[in-house]
Design brief:
about 30% helix; four-stranded mixed sheet; alpha+beta
Amino acid sequence: MAKFITASAEGAVRQGELLSDVLEIVPTPDFITGESQELISIQHEYLVVLSQDCDLDWDYRSRLQVAGDSTASAPKQMASILLCKVDAASEVRARSAVNSTTWGRIRIN
């Protein structure tokens, strides 16, 4: 069975944490070459964190410089976090390719 963790306002982001209403900002190819200032924004209803807990914790401690933590000064900041889109169960079930057998397998995962 899949395990998702409810997001917390305090502490590091955790592996398996389910995030909602995330806005992703993506540069256009012209932005990267300097020919444009255009960015694309993509709203994600749900995302699950796939990055490793240990890396996420190192990043959190490094960014906050946790008082009294001798490991906080180590250069362990992450450039990005690996996320994966998650669809609502109702959306998945409504797909024509998802029959009752397939849905049964999806539900138990």
